[in-house]
Protein backbone atom coordinates (compact mmCIF):
# COMPACT_ATOMS: atom_id res chain seq x y z
CA UNK A 1 0.00 0.00 0.00
CA UNK A 2 1.35 3.41 -1.02
CA UNK A 3 1.76 5.82 1.87
CA UNK A 4 -0.71 8.71 1.79
CA UNK A 5 1.05 12.05 1.44
CA UNK A 6 -0.07 15.12 3.33
CA UNK A 7 1.85 17.60 1.16
CA UNK A 8 3.61 17.51 -2.21
CA UNK A 9 7.10 16.04 -2.23
CA UNK A 10 8.30 19.16 -4.02
CA UNK A 11 7.96 21.05 -0.74
CA UNK A 12 10.87 18.98 0.57
CA UNK A 13 12.98 19.16 -2.59
CA UNK A 14 15.74 21.38 -3.90
CA UNK A 15 16.28 21.94 -7.62
CA UNK A 16 19.92 22.24 -8.64
CA UNK A 17 20.42 23.59 -12.16
CA UNK A 18 23.69 22.88 -13.97
CA UNK A 19 24.17 26.01 -16.08
CA UNK A 20 27.89 26.16 -16.75
CA UNK A 21 27.89 24.74 -20.28
CA UNK A 22 29.82 26.42 -23.07
CA UNK A 23 27.33 25.58 -25.82
CA UNK A 24 30.11 25.67 -28.42
CA UNK A 25 27.86 24.29 -31.19
CA UNK A 26 25.94 27.57 -31.07
CA UNK A 27 29.12 29.18 -32.38
CA UNK A 28 29.17 32.99 -32.04
CA UNK A 29 25.92 33.04 -30.07
CA UNK A 30 27.92 31.81 -27.07
CA UNK A 31 30.99 33.98 -27.60
CA UNK A 32 29.74 36.34 -24.88
CA UNK A 33 27.29 34.19 -22.92
CA UNK A 34 26.78 30.65 -21.68
CA UNK A 35 24.24 28.51 -23.53
CA UNK A 36 21.60 28.73 -20.73
CA UNK A 37 21.72 32.55 -21.06
CA UNK A 38 20.98 32.54 -24.81
CA UNK A 39 17.74 34.32 -25.67
CA UNK A 40 14.73 32.21 -26.66
CA UNK A 41 11.10 32.73 -27.63
CA UNK A 42 10.96 36.52 -27.73
CA UNK A 43 11.06 37.35 -24.01
CA UNK A 44 12.95 34.61 -22.19
CA UNK A 45 16.33 32.85 -21.88
CA UNK A 46 16.84 29.11 -22.28
CA UNK A 47 17.42 28.60 -18.54
CA UNK A 48 14.00 30.08 -17.73
CA UNK A 49 12.34 26.83 -18.80
CA UNK A 50 14.09 24.62 -16.23
CA UNK A 51 13.66 27.27 -13.52
CA UNK A 52 9.98 27.80 -14.37
CA UNK A 53 9.37 24.05 -14.31
CA UNK A 54 10.85 23.90 -10.81
CA UNK A 55 8.84 26.89 -9.57
CA UNK A 56 5.58 25.70 -11.15
CA UNK A 57 6.17 22.22 -9.71
CA UNK A 58 6.18 23.69 -6.22
CA UNK A 59 9.93 23.63 -5.55
CA UNK A 60 10.98 26.67 -3.55
CA UNK A 61 14.67 25.99 -3.02
CA UNK A 62 16.79 26.41 -6.13
CA UNK A 63 20.52 26.55 -6.79
CA UNK A 64 22.15 27.44 -10.12
CA UNK A 65 25.76 26.45 -10.79
CA UNK A 66 27.45 28.71 -13.33
CA UNK A 67 30.93 28.70 -14.84
CA UNK A 68 31.56 29.58 -18.48
CA UNK A 69 31.13 33.30 -19.43
CA UNK A 70 28.53 33.65 -16.71
CA UNK A 71 28.08 37.43 -16.42
CA UNK A 72 24.98 37.79 -18.61
CA UNK A 73 23.47 34.69 -17.01
CA UNK A 74 24.10 35.91 -13.47
CA UNK A 75 22.74 39.36 -14.34
CA UNK A 76 19.58 37.77 -15.77
CA UNK A 77 19.10 35.61 -12.68
CA UNK A 78 19.58 38.59 -10.37
CA UNK A 79 17.05 40.66 -12.30
CA UNK A 80 14.43 38.02 -13.04
CA UNK A 81 14.66 35.48 -10.21
CA UNK A 82 15.20 37.62 -7.11
CA UNK A 83 11.69 37.17 -5.66
CA UNK A 84 12.41 34.20 -3.36
CA UNK A 85 12.08 35.02 0.34
CA UNK A 86 13.98 33.26 3.15
CA UNK A 87 11.18 33.97 5.64
CA UNK A 88 8.92 31.76 3.48
CA UNK A 89 11.51 28.95 3.55
CA UNK A 90 12.53 29.85 0.02
CA UNK A 91 16.02 30.23 -1.37
CA UNK A 92 17.69 31.01 -4.68
CA UNK A 93 21.46 30.60 -4.78
CA UNK A 94 23.69 31.53 -7.70
CA UNK A 95 26.77 29.35 -7.38
CA UNK A 96 29.62 30.35 -9.71
CA UNK A 97 32.76 28.26 -9.71
CA UNK A 98 34.81 29.92 -6.98
CA UNK A 99 37.57 27.47 -6.05
CA UNK A 100 35.77 26.50 -2.84
CA UNK A 101 37.48 23.11 -2.59
CA UNK A 102 40.90 24.06 -3.93
CA UNK A 103 42.58 27.28 -4.97
CA UNK A 104 43.32 25.73 -8.35
CA UNK A 105 40.12 23.73 -8.95
CA UNK A 106 37.10 25.01 -10.86
CA UNK A 107 34.09 22.77 -11.56
CA UNK A 108 35.64 19.70 -13.17
CA UNK A 109 32.35 18.09 -14.19
CA UNK A 110 28.62 18.09 -13.51
CA UNK A 111 28.96 16.02 -10.35
CA UNK A 112 31.79 18.20 -9.08
CA UNK A 113 29.59 21.28 -9.58
CA UNK A 114 27.27 19.84 -6.92
CA UNK A 115 29.99 18.37 -4.71
CA UNK A 116 31.78 21.70 -4.30
CA UNK A 117 28.59 23.23 -2.88
CA UNK A 118 27.60 20.51 -0.42
CA UNK A 119 28.21 22.87 2.49
CA UNK A 120 25.65 25.29 1.00
CA UNK A 121 23.06 22.63 0.20
CA UNK A 122 23.05 20.61 3.41
CA UNK A 123 22.06 23.43 5.83
CA UNK A 124 18.79 23.86 3.92
CA UNK A 125 17.94 20.25 4.76
CA UNK A 126 16.18 19.20 1.53
CA UNK A 127 15.03 15.59 1.59
CA UNK A 128 15.26 15.28 -2.20
CA UNK A 129 17.53 16.74 -4.88
CA UNK A 130 16.33 17.34 -8.43
CA UNK A 131 19.38 17.78 -10.67
CA UNK A 132 18.55 19.66 -13.88
CA UNK A 133 20.28 20.73 -17.08
CA UNK A 134 19.81 24.43 -17.73
CA UNK A 135 19.87 24.32 -21.53
CA UNK A 136 16.74 22.56 -22.82
CA UNK A 137 13.28 23.76 -23.88
CA UNK A 138 10.39 21.81 -22.33
CA UNK A 139 7.56 21.95 -19.77
CA UNK A 140 7.59 19.32 -17.02
CA UNK A 141 6.03 18.82 -13.60
CA UNK A 142 8.81 17.37 -11.45
CA UNK A 143 6.32 16.36 -8.73
CA UNK A 144 5.37 13.28 -10.77
CA UNK A 145 9.01 12.26 -11.04
CA UNK A 146 9.50 12.76 -7.29
CA UNK A 147 6.47 10.59 -6.56
CA UNK A 148 7.77 7.80 -8.79
CA UNK A 149 11.17 8.03 -7.12
CA UNK A 150 9.70 7.54 -3.66
CA UNK A 151 7.16 4.89 -4.67
CA UNK A 152 9.74 2.78 -6.53
CA UNK A 153 12.36 2.93 -3.78
CA UNK A 154 14.97 3.95 -6.33
CA UNK A 155 18.43 5.23 -5.49
CA UNK A 156 18.21 7.48 -8.53
CA UNK A 157 15.37 8.23 -10.94
CA UNK A 158 16.39 9.43 -14.40
CA UNK A 159 14.19 11.49 -16.71
CA UNK A 160 14.05 9.87 -20.14
CA UNK A 161 12.74 10.66 -23.62
CA UNK A 162 11.24 8.07 -25.90
CA UNK A 163 13.37 8.35 -29.05
CA UNK A 164 13.22 6.22 -32.23
CA UNK A 165 16.07 3.71 -32.04
CA UNK A 166 17.42 4.98 -35.35
CA UNK A 167 17.90 8.43 -33.78
CA UNK A 168 19.10 7.38 -30.32
CA UNK A 169 22.80 6.88 -31.04
CA UNK A 170 23.59 10.47 -30.07
CA UNK A 171 22.19 10.05 -26.54
CA UNK A 172 22.95 8.22 -23.35
CA UNK A 173 20.47 5.33 -23.57
CA UNK A 174 18.81 3.37 -20.76
CA UNK A 175 18.41 -0.38 -21.18
CA UNK A 176 15.40 -1.15 -18.95
CA UNK A 177 13.32 -4.13 -17.89
CA UNK A 178 9.51 -4.28 -17.86
CA UNK A 179 9.42 -2.28 -14.60
CA UNK A 180 11.55 0.49 -16.14
CA UNK A 181 14.42 -0.46 -13.85
CA UNK A 182 17.68 0.37 -15.58
CA UNK A 183 19.77 -2.69 -16.35
CA UNK A 184 22.48 -0.86 -18.25
CA UNK A 185 23.39 2.71 -19.13
CA UNK A 186 24.96 2.94 -22.59
CA UNK A 187 26.59 6.18 -23.81
CA UNK A 188 25.91 6.91 -27.52
CA UNK A 189 25.50 3.25 -28.57
CA UNK A 190 25.74 2.18 -32.22
CA UNK A 191 22.82 -0.22 -31.66
CA UNK A 192 20.57 1.32 -28.96
CA UNK A 193 18.55 -1.15 -26.86
CA UNK A 194 14.80 -0.92 -27.44
CA UNK A 195 12.10 -0.50 -24.79
CA UNK A 196 10.35 -3.72 -23.69
CA UNK A 197 6.92 -2.34 -24.63
CA UNK A 198 8.13 -0.35 -27.66
CA UNK A 199 10.98 -2.23 -29.35
CA UNK A 200 11.41 0.43 -32.05
CA UNK A 201 12.02 3.15 -29.43
CA UNK A 202 14.81 3.72 -26.92
CA UNK A 203 14.87 5.64 -23.63
CA UNK A 204 17.35 8.52 -23.86
CA UNK A 205 18.59 10.42 -20.81
CA UNK A 206 17.34 14.01 -20.42
CA UNK A 207 20.04 14.86 -17.89
CA UNK A 208 17.40 15.09 -15.14
CA UNK A 209 18.03 13.11 -11.94
CA UNK A 210 16.17 12.71 -8.64
CA UNK A 211 17.98 11.52 -5.51
CA UNK A 212 17.39 11.37 -1.80
CA UNK A 213 19.79 14.07 -0.66
CA UNK A 214 21.67 11.93 1.86
CA UNK A 215 22.32 9.23 -0.73
CA UNK A 216 23.48 11.76 -3.32
CA UNK A 217 25.96 13.33 -0.91
CA UNK A 218 27.39 9.90 -0.12
CA UNK A 219 27.81 9.24 -3.86
CA UNK A 220 29.47 12.59 -4.46
CA UNK A 221 31.93 12.15 -1.60
CA UNK A 222 32.83 8.65 -2.79
CA UNK A 223 33.30 9.92 -6.34
CA UNK A 224 35.46 12.85 -5.18
CA UNK A 225 37.85 10.35 -3.58
CA UNK A 226 38.15 8.31 -6.79
CA UNK A 227 41.23 9.54 -8.71
CA UNK A 228 40.02 7.87 -11.93
CA UNK A 229 36.65 9.67 -11.99
CA UNK A 230 35.84 12.44 -14.44
CA UNK A 231 33.41 13.91 -11.83
CA UNK A 232 30.42 13.62 -14.17
CA UNK A 233 26.88 12.37 -13.53
CA UNK A 234 26.46 10.67 -16.90
CA UNK A 235 29.94 9.16 -17.06
CA UNK A 236 30.56 8.25 -13.41
CA UNK A 237 27.73 8.67 -10.88
CA UNK A 238 24.88 7.12 -12.86
CA UNK A 239 26.80 4.09 -14.21
CA UNK A 240 28.02 3.34 -10.68
CA UNK A 241 24.47 3.36 -9.28
CA UNK A 242 23.15 1.27 -12.18
CA UNK A 243 25.80 -1.34 -11.38
CA UNK A 244 25.65 -1.20 -7.58
CA UNK A 245 22.20 0.14 -6.67
CA UNK A 246 18.72 0.69 -8.06
CA UNK A 247 18.21 3.12 -10.94
CA UNK A 248 14.76 3.66 -12.46
CA UNK A 249 13.74 5.45 -15.65
CA UNK A 250 11.00 8.09 -15.59
CA UNK A 251 9.28 8.61 -18.93
CA UNK A 252 8.93 12.26 -19.87
CA UNK A 253 5.46 11.67 -21.33
CA UNK A 254 4.19 10.92 -17.80
CA UNK A 255 5.09 14.37 -16.45
CA UNK A 256 5.20 16.59 -19.54
CA UNK A 257 2.91 19.59 -19.12
CA UNK A 258 0.61 20.08 -22.09
CA UNK A 259 -2.19 22.52 -22.78
CA UNK A 260 -5.24 21.56 -24.84
CA UNK A 261 -3.35 22.69 -27.95
CA UNK A 262 -0.24 20.55 -27.49
CA UNK A 263 -0.51 17.07 -28.99
CA UNK A 264 2.95 15.66 -28.34
CA UNK A 265 5.42 15.80 -25.45
CA UNK A 266 7.72 18.68 -26.44
CA UNK A 267 11.45 18.68 -25.59
CA UNK A 268 14.21 20.32 -27.58
CA UNK A 269 17.96 20.60 -27.23
CA UNK A 270 18.56 23.90 -29.03
CA UNK A 271 22.30 23.31 -29.06
CA UNK A 272 22.97 23.98 -32.75
CA UNK A 273 22.22 27.01 -34.92
CA UNK A 274 19.74 24.96 -36.96
CA UNK A 275 17.93 23.58 -33.89
CA UNK A 276 17.87 26.99 -32.23
CA UNK A 277 16.44 28.68 -35.32
CA UNK A 278 13.86 25.94 -35.86
CA UNK A 279 12.59 25.92 -32.26
CA UNK A 280 12.11 29.68 -32.32
CA UNK A 281 10.43 29.65 -35.74
CA UNK A 282 8.18 26.78 -34.60
CA UNK A 283 6.54 29.26 -32.22
CA UNK A 284 5.22 31.25 -35.20
CA UNK A 285 2.97 28.39 -36.35
CA UNK A 286 -0.81 28.84 -36.11
CA UNK A 287 -0.87 26.01 -33.54
CA UNK A 288 2.75 25.68 -32.30
CA UNK A 289 4.00 22.42 -30.82
CA UNK A 290 5.01 24.35 -27.67
CA UNK A 291 2.29 26.49 -26.10
CA UNK A 292 3.96 29.46 -24.41
CA UNK A 293 0.54 31.09 -23.93
CA UNK A 294 -0.53 28.50 -21.32
CA UNK A 295 -1.30 30.59 -18.22
CA UNK A 296 -1.52 27.48 -16.03
CA UNK A 297 2.22 26.87 -16.56
CA UNK A 298 3.86 30.27 -17.15
CA UNK A 299 7.46 30.62 -18.24
CA UNK A 300 8.86 33.10 -15.72
CA UNK A 301 11.61 35.50 -16.72
CA UNK A 302 12.96 39.00 -16.26
CA UNK A 303 9.90 41.17 -16.92
CA UNK A 304 11.46 44.13 -18.66
CA UNK A 305 9.27 47.25 -18.71
CA UNK A 306 8.77 48.28 -22.34
CA UNK A 307 6.27 50.24 -24.44
CA UNK A 308 4.03 48.23 -26.80
CA UNK A 309 5.17 47.18 -30.24
CA UNK A 310 4.25 49.63 -32.98
CA UNK A 311 3.48 49.19 -36.69
CA UNK A 312 3.52 52.26 -38.93
CA UNK A 313 3.09 53.27 -42.60
CA UNK A 314 0.43 51.98 -44.96
CA UNK A 315 1.78 52.68 -48.44
CA UNK A 316 2.38 50.22 -51.24
CA UNK A 317 5.67 48.36 -50.56
CA UNK A 318 6.01 50.33 -47.33
CA UNK A 319 3.51 48.79 -44.96
CA UNK A 320 4.34 47.88 -41.37
CA UNK A 321 3.02 44.33 -41.14
CA UNK A 322 3.66 40.96 -39.49
CA UNK A 323 2.20 37.66 -40.73
CA UNK A 324 2.58 34.48 -38.63
CA UNK A 325 5.16 36.27 -36.50
CA UNK A 326 5.89 37.09 -32.86
CA UNK A 327 6.80 40.69 -32.08
CA UNK A 328 7.95 41.70 -28.59
CA UNK A 329 7.57 44.99 -26.75
CA UNK A 330 9.47 48.13 -27.81
CA UNK A 331 9.67 46.92 -31.43
CA UNK A 332 8.88 49.43 -34.17
CA UNK A 333 7.98 47.94 -37.54
CA UNK A 334 8.30 51.05 -39.68
CA UNK A 335 7.21 50.18 -43.19
CA UNK A 336 8.76 46.70 -43.03
CA UNK A 337 7.08 43.34 -43.63
CA UNK A 338 7.58 40.27 -41.44
CA UNK A 339 6.72 36.68 -42.36
CA UNK A 340 7.22 33.67 -40.07
CA UNK A 341 9.63 35.65 -37.93
CA UNK A 342 10.30 36.18 -34.23
CA UNK A 343 11.49 39.52 -32.89
CA UNK A 344 12.84 40.07 -29.40
CA UNK A 345 12.57 43.33 -27.47
CA UNK A 346 13.62 46.64 -28.97
CA UNK A 347 14.01 45.71 -32.64
CA UNK A 348 13.72 48.46 -35.27
CA UNK A 349 12.78 47.28 -38.78
CA UNK A 350 12.88 50.13 -41.26
CA UNK A 351 11.03 50.89 -44.48
CA UNK A 352 10.96 48.55 -47.48
CA UNK A 353 12.79 45.79 -45.60
CA UNK A 354 11.46 42.23 -45.62
CA UNK A 355 12.12 39.55 -43.01
CA UNK A 356 11.20 35.94 -43.72
CA UNK A 357 12.12 33.16 -41.27
CA UNK A 358 14.10 35.63 -39.16
CA UNK A 359 15.00 35.23 -35.48
CA UNK A 360 16.06 38.70 -34.36
CA UNK A 361 17.58 39.10 -30.88
CA UNK A 362 17.10 42.28 -28.79
CA UNK A 363 17.99 45.81 -29.91
CA UNK A 364 18.76 44.98 -33.53
CA UNK A 365 18.36 47.71 -36.15
CA UNK A 366 17.32 46.59 -39.64
CA UNK A 367 18.30 49.08 -42.34
CA UNK A 368 16.01 50.14 -45.16
CA UNK A 369 15.51 47.80 -48.15
CA UNK A 370 17.13 44.85 -46.35
CA UNK A 371 15.98 41.41 -47.48
CA UNK A 372 16.69 38.81 -44.78
CA UNK A 373 15.65 35.17 -45.17
CA UNK A 374 16.34 32.32 -42.72
CA UNK A 375 18.62 34.23 -40.37
CA UNK A 376 19.54 34.49 -36.69
CA UNK A 377 20.77 38.00 -35.84
CA UNK A 378 22.65 38.45 -32.57
CA UNK A 379 21.91 41.05 -29.91
CA UNK A 380 22.59 44.70 -30.80
CA UNK A 381 23.51 44.22 -34.47
CA UNK A 382 22.95 47.05 -36.95
CA UNK A 383 22.03 45.70 -40.39
CA UNK A 384 23.14 48.12 -43.13
CA UNK A 385 20.72 49.41 -45.76
CA UNK A 386 20.08 47.11 -48.69
CA UNK A 387 21.71 43.98 -47.21
CA UNK A 388 20.42 40.80 -48.87
CA UNK A 389 20.82 37.47 -47.07
CA UNK A 390 19.33 34.19 -48.25
CA UNK A 391 19.53 34.70 -52.02
CA UNK A 392 23.14 33.68 -52.75
CA UNK A 393 24.39 30.72 -50.66
CA UNK A 394 28.04 31.11 -51.67
CA UNK A 395 28.10 34.83 -50.86
CA UNK A 396 26.30 34.21 -47.55
CA UNK A 397 28.84 31.55 -46.57
CA UNK A 398 31.74 33.93 -47.22
CA UNK A 399 30.24 36.73 -45.15
CA UNK A 400 28.38 35.00 -42.33
CA UNK A 401 28.12 31.75 -40.37
CA UNK A 402 25.96 29.65 -42.73
CA UNK A 403 24.81 26.12 -41.82
CA UNK A 404 24.40 23.29 -44.31
CA UNK A 405 20.63 23.77 -44.19
CA UNK A 406 20.97 27.43 -45.13
CA UNK A 407 20.50 29.26 -41.82
CA UNK A 408 22.77 32.32 -41.46
CA UNK A 409 23.98 33.57 -38.09
CA UNK A 410 24.91 37.27 -38.24
CA UNK A 411 26.92 39.15 -35.60
CA UNK A 412 28.13 42.74 -35.47
CA UNK A 413 31.72 41.59 -36.01
CA UNK A 414 30.67 40.01 -39.30
CA UNK A 415 28.84 43.17 -40.33
CA UNK A 416 31.83 45.34 -39.45
CA UNK A 417 34.04 43.27 -41.75
CA UNK A 418 31.65 43.98 -44.63
CA UNK A 419 32.16 47.70 -44.15
CA UNK A 420 35.96 47.63 -44.20
TrEMBL record:
Enzyme Commission number(s) from the entry: 2.7.7.27
Organism of derivation: Ferirhizobium litorale
Coiled coil spans: none
Protein name: Glucose-1-phosphate adenylyltransferase
PANTHER family, per database record: GLUCOSE-1-PHOSPHATE ADENYLYLTRANSFERASE, GLUCOSE-1-PHOSPHATE ADENYLYLTRANSFERASE-RELATED
Keyword Ribonucleoprotein assigned: no
Domain Nucleotidyl transferase per the UniProt entry, residue ranges: 16-284
Domain Glucose-1-phosphate adenylyltransferase/Bifunctional protein GlmU-like C-terminal hexapeptide: 307-410
GO BP terms: glycogen biosynthetic process
Subunit annotation: Homotetramer.
Binding site for alpha-D-glucose 1-phosphate: 107, 172, 187-188, 205
Sample GO molecular function, one term: ATP binding
Keyword Transferase carried by entry: yes
UniProt keyword list: ATP-binding, Carbohydrate metabolism, Glycogen biosynthesis, Glycogen metabolism, Nucleotide-binding, Nucleotidyltransferase, Transferase
Function of the protein: Involved in the biosynthesis of ADP-glucose, a building block required for the elongation reactions to produce glycogen. Catalyzes the reaction between ATP and alpha-D-glucose 1-phosphate (G1P) to produce pyrophosphate and ADP-Glc.
Protein family per UniProt: Belongs to the bacterial/plant glucose-1-phosphate adenylyltransferase family.
Residues the record marks as site: Could play a key role in the communication between the regulatory and the substrate sites: 67, 106
Known pathway: Glycan biosynthesis; glycogen biosynthesis
InterPro entries membership: ADP-Glc_PPase, ADP_Glu_pyroP_CS, GlgC_bac, GlmU/GlgC-like_hexapep, NTP_transferase_dom, Nucleotide-diphossugar_trans, Trimer_LpxA-like_sf
Catalyzed reactions per annotation: alpha-D-glucose 1-phosphate + ATP + H(+) = ADP-alpha-D-glucose + diphosphate
Amino acid sequence: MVEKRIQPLSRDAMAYVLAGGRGSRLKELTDRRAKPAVYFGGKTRIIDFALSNALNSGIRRIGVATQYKAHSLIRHLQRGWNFFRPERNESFDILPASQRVSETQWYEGTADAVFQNIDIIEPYGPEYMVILAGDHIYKMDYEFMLQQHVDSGADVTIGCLEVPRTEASGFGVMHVNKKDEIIEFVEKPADPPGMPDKPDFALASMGIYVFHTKFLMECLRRDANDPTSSRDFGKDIIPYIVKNGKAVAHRFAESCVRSDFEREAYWRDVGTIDAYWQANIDLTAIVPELDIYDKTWPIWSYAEITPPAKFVHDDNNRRGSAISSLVSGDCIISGASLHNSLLFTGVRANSYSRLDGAVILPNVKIGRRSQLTNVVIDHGVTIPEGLVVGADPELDARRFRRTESGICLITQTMIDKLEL
